[in-house]
Amino acid sequence: MPHDNRPIGVFDSGLGGLTVVRALRERLPDEGVVYLGDTARLPYGTKSRDTILRFAREDADFLAGHEVKALVVACNTVSSLAMPALELAYPQLPRIGVVAAGVEALLGLERRKRVLVLGTSATVNSDSYRRLIHRVDAGVAVTSLACPLFVPLVEEGLVTGALAESVIRHYLAPMIAAPPDALILGCTHYPLLTETIADMLPSSVQIVDSAAACAASVARYLTENGATAEPGAAEPVERYYVTDMPASFFQLAQRFLGRPVARVDKVTVPE
Amino acid sequence: MPHDNRPIGVFDSGLGGLTVVRALRERLPDEGVVYLGDTARLPYGTKSRDTILRFAREDADFLAGHEVKALVVACNTVSSLAMPALELAYPQLPRIGVVAAGVEALLGLERRKRVLVLGTSATVNSDSYRRLIHRVDAGVAVTSLACPLFVPLVEEGLVTGALAESVIRHYLAPMIAAPPDALILGCTHYPLLTETIADMLPSSVQIVDSAAACAASVARYLTENGATAEPGAAEPVERYYVTDMPASFFQLAQRFLGRPVARVDKVTVPE
Q1: According to CATH, what is the number of the domain A8-97+212-266?
Q2: Highest mean pLDDT: which of A115-119, B151-155, B260-264?
Q3: Are B163 and A170 an interchain contact pair (Cβ–Cβ within 8 Å)?
Q4: N or C end of chain A: smaller count of CB under 10 Å?
């Protein structure tokens, strides 16, 4: 059986994509990972389509220069807007986006008549989740809601407590009264609020884990294409690059990744 | 008396600097203004010194290319960290920063023994306000507090109401019990929260208006150097440039400027 020992490239506007790296490392411990977080220009979710497309291409250029075998778009905003642009720029490089992966996981649920998607302004405005869901099942009622305060709340580490609850209530109050069947946390920062959000909703609401869904998508792609790494052939590489504040990334990585990273390098993108 | 009809250059990471433009237009109606808001890379206040210095130089390069007679640094973060770097890059171009202007206004107050400075993480970490205040009066007790949720709150338009009050209380609770003599809103976004903040503090707390102080500094510089525009010589120019989302800038400008703008152009910085 053929193998491909090159690493998987993962990028995000910042640290959030580490939730996807965590899921990848748990599911595919033999695979190497090269991660890029564009911390100098984050957030992406409040910016325009044109600017997001430009940033996405520049991030992908960086990873392509590191000989990756696949491009994992961990950022929901980029995954919502830039997949066609990335396909044009890198037709030979397989691209797996967190949005399509989350939609696939949602469609596998038994109860999914009414779905709520929480995301950044850019993700919600792109209507990406609804469009992808309706390609398979137009009968799903999809409501999307932009929650711009969630990212700074998570970055401040305020994921529980009175203020987090006030912010969540501000956005979700109408949903608490009429809860959906399933909730997609359509931004890699939001999973850190999962427990606090879950505590405020009826237990019947199923929360889709996009990071795990994304790792499952990658696993399937690699297996189907004979592109998995040879087990035990070599210690899998794990490289972390950011465009700003490597020290802060180093500290916060543990919160997203569940363990410390060995090393973080600062790079300029575009180079 | 000599005159200089070239416009004043003003820059900020985004829209907040428009509060300075508003003060400039009110105080100096004959002066032209060229404004740059780096909306593609905002916010600056959560980023590193090196990155802020690079962005500041690139923004100044853009304005210098527009033949401005002075450089107004409306961004507190840049004004806290990059004034020496801008002096090195543009020794011939007068530079007026909002931080020094705010400090001057504070020092003109009668009661100013205990001062609270609210700002971004980068501004607070730079310790710029305390250092400038202590150059003149080391007897002032300066407390600085980073309020990272204020910027997204203002950008969401949530400047009054229960959520704004929860966020303000989160940061200011200890200060509400032991109020300072004066409060500096050390970020151009924060003045939009002035009323809500003032309602939560005793009326004895004096709030320093950095935008008005900055306009006063510019007026004094121009007068002292014979560099004011000739009154009535020509309609003063007013140009607005942003690096992303001109339509959104166009809409939100009214909130910061108090009136609509005629036109906004999108540019790429660095060019």
Answers
A1: 3.40.50.1860
A2: A115-119
A3: yes
A4: N
